[in-house]
Amino acid sequence: MIDPLATLPGYLLRRASNAMMAMLARELEVTCLTTVEASILTIIQFNDGIRQVELCQILDIKKANMTPRIASLEKRRLVGRKPIDGRSSGLFLTSLGQACQAQAWQIMQAHERAMLAQLGASESVGFAPALVRLWQMGNPKT
Amino acid sequence: MIDPLATLPGYLLRRASNAMMAMLARELEVTCLTTVEASILTIIQFNDGIRQVELCQILDIKKANMTPRIASLEKRRLVGRKPIDGRSSGLFLTSLGQACQAQAWQIMQAHERAMLAQLGASESVGFAPALVRLWQMGNPKT
DNA sequence: TATTGTTATACTCTATAACTATA
DNA sequence: TATAGTTATAGAGTATAACAATA
Q1: Residues 115-134 of B with CB under 8 A from A
Q2: Which residue from B39, B62, B124, B136 is spatially nearest to A20, judged by alpha carbons?
Q3: Shortest alpha-carbon distance between residue B70 and chain A (Å)
Q4: Closest listed residue to residue A78, CA positions, set A27, A28, A37
Q5: What angle, 0 to 180 degrees and rounded to 10, lies between the N-to-C axes of helices B52-59 and B63-75?
Q6: How far apart are alpha carbons B72 and B14 in whole angstroms?
Q7: Given an 8 Å threshold on Cβ–Cβ distance, is A43 in contact with B5?
C-alpha cells in the first residue's frame, strides 16, 4: 500500500502531534485532567490572578468555550475567582488545584523528556525552533 | 504574561500542527475540499481500487466515520466504486475527481515548500525524521 | 466465525451570534 | 462604545455498539 502523504512534513507534523497528544492524554488520566485542563491549571499557577480573557489569548481558545471549562474546574474545587472589577475576576488555584497541577506538571515534564529521548542529536537540536517558526508562520500578527 | 507551556516541545508540536492545518485548510478552500478529503482523494489516486477499510488503516479513521465521507465524495461525483466481492468495493477517482485531486495535490506540495522555506538548514535537516520517530512512538504496533 | 460496510448515537472541540453588566 | 463573561446553538471530528450481508 502506497502512502503518498507519508513524504509530506506537514502530514507527519499532524500525525506526530496527534500521537503525542493521545499519549499525554493517557498519561494524565491519573490526575482526572484533560490536556487542556492541565494547561489551564499550569498557566494559572504561573500567572496567579490571570483573567479568563488572557487565558483565552494564550491558549487560543474562544471565550465562549472557556466559560464551561473554568466552570467545571471551579465546581471541582480546583480553581477559584477573586473579583477584579464588576465584570472580571482573577483566577487562582485552590490548594487542591495546586496539588493537582503539580502532579500534572510532573507528568507533562516526564512526557517531554520521553519525547526528546526518542530523537537523535541531529533531530532534536533544531526541533523546537522549527516548531516555533511554523507556529509563528500561522500567526501573521505580533 | 508568562507562558510556561511555550518551553515544551510537545506543546509547540500541537500549536505548530494546528497552525499549519488551519493554513492548509484555507489554501484548499478553492478546491472545495477539506484537508481530509484531499488526503482521501490523493491516497485513492496513488492506490486505485483501494477498499475503505484500507483507507481507514492508512489515515487512522474509524470505518464508521469513513462511510459518510466517501458517500459525500461519491455524491459529488469525485469518487466511484467498483465491486470487488459482495461486501466490498474498490474505490477510484472519476475524471472530475482526478482533476480535483491534481489541483489539491499542487496546493499541498506548495504548502510543504512554503513550510520548509521557513526553516533554516539546522532546523529542516532532522525535522521529518523527528516527526516520524514521534509518530511511531505513539504507535507501539508494527 | 470473521470481515466489510452501514446506521445510530454520543461526546468533545470549535465557531458564531446575541445577550448582560460593567468600564 | 468597548470589554468581560455568559448562554445558546451549530458544525466538525471522533468513539462505540449493533446490525446486514458476505467470506
Answers
A1: 115-116, 118-120, 122-134
A2: B136
A3: 18
A4: A37
A5: 120
A6: 29
A7: yes
**A134: closest chain B residue by CA:** B16
Which cell is B114 given? 512554503
Cell representation of residue A88? 472580571
B window 4-33, beta carbon within 8 A of A: 4-5, 8-24
Strands B79-83 and B89-93: antiparallel
Closest CA to B78 of B103, B53, B60, B59: B103
Torsion of CA A12, A17, A23, A29, to 10 degrees: -160
Distance B72 CA to C2 C1' (A): 28
Determine contact, residues B14/A134, Cβ cutoff 8 Å.
no
Mean pLDDT score, B5-30: 97
pLDDT digits (tens, 9 = 90+) for A49-97: 999 999 999 999 999 999 999 999 999 999 999 999 999 999 999 999 9
The whole-angstrom distance between A27's CA and the closest CA on chain B is 12
Query: Which residues are bridge partners to A91 per DSSP?
Result: A50, A81
Q: What are the DSSP calls for B90-125, one per residue?
A: EEEE-HHHHHHHHHHHHHHHHHHHHHHHTS-HHHHT
Confidence of residue B38 (pLDDT cuts 50, 70, 90): very high
Decide: B137 and A26 in contact? Cβ < 8 Å: no
Question: Averaged over B127-142, what is the pLDDT?
Answer: 88
